[in-house]
Design brief:
294 residues; mainly alpha; 0% strand
Length: 294
């Protein structure tokens, strides 16, 4: 249990720093998402090969449409998240992205015929209020900083990323008998298939313009933030109770906010944006934690 907790904490901390490394990779978001998928697929595939884990091809074949759609959604999700970081601070982009569980909460009753409890309705409303506070509050008091960013556009990209990440979460609920890293490897491959024509028709390849720092950050995003982090994330979820995993998953946005404020020195959240972020994270966490039975 301690080992699984440490693995999840490590993966969430890694995820929370991706915005920092994105800042030093001057290539288009789609291109970065493609390289991220390629590097991660190579690492995860190599890990499965070295650990001699058999890939359940028959099961994967039966679930292939869902795996492909979820992988494509994952690729689009990455593009939109990177675009969010291009237009606003890492803190605001990440907090907008964490609206994904709220979307899942709202859609599940429609897809799975589940009734929303009073607590879920309240959590949903609190999260919506939080997003309104983040979106409608001016973020930068420095005019020069504000001129170089468009927070509203960045937040909208973050919300778009949240929609596609919610799609990934929902599609994964329908995927049966394909576990952890096997599922993720197929999804990475599907993301590669989806992103390759998009990149070819839009930005093209521009790796020649990267300096040494850009290359290092690109490798870190692909191998560490995606490959290593996923290898830590999925096995830890198997061993930890759902509530503990839910609580620890909020290390990601908290680290992102700290990175934005303390390392990147981006404009701090206003009081109301901070309240909005707390409402989103607090409400979704409260929804995931069920009361203990006496």
């Amino acid at each position: 249990m301690k080992r699984a907790r440490l693995m999840l904490i490590t993966s969430m901390t890694i995820f929370g720093t991706i915005g920092l490394f994105k800042r030093f990779i001057p290539i288009a978001s789609g291109e970065l998402a493609l390289y991220r998928a390629i590097l991660a697929a190579v690492l995860v595939g190599g890990f499965l090969l070295v650990t001699k884990q058999k890939i359940p091809l028959r099961t994967i074949r039966r679930q292939l449409p869902l795996l492909l759609f979820s992988g494509a959604a994952m690729g689009v999700n990455w593009i939109l998240l990177f675009e969010a970081y291009n237009h606003t601070t890492v803190a605001l982009g990440t907090l907008s992205y964490y609206f994904a569980p709220v979307i899942v909460m709202a859609v599940c009753p429609l897809l799975f015929k589940e009734k929303m409890t009073g607590k879920q309705v309240l959590c949903f409303l609190l999260s919506v209020v939080g997003m309104v506070l983040i979106t409608c509050t001016e973020g930068a008091s420095d005019p020069a900083a504000q001129a170089s960013r468009n927070d509203l556009v960045g937040i909208l990209f973050g919300l778009g990323a949240a929609v596609f990440y919610a799609c990934v979460m929902l599609l994964n609920k329908f995927i049966r008998d394909v576990e952890g890293l096997h599922r993720t490897l197929v999804q990475f491959i599907a993301a590669i298939v989806t992103l390759t024509p998009y990149v070819a028709l839009s930005s093209g390849m521009s790796l020649g313009g990267l300096d040494a720092a850009g290359w290092v950050c690109l490798l870190v995003v692909g191998l560490v933030h995606t490959g290593v982090a996923y290898c830590l994330y999925f096995p830890s979820l198997k061993e930890l109770p759902g509530q503990k995993a839910a609580i620890l998953s909020y290390i990601d946005p908290l680290v992102a906010v700290l990175v934005s404020a303390l390392i990147l020195r981006e404009a701090p959240l206003t009081l109301w944006q901070g309240v909005g972020g707390a409402l989103i994270l607090g409400a979704t966490l409260w929804n995931e934690i069920s009361p203990r039975k006496a």
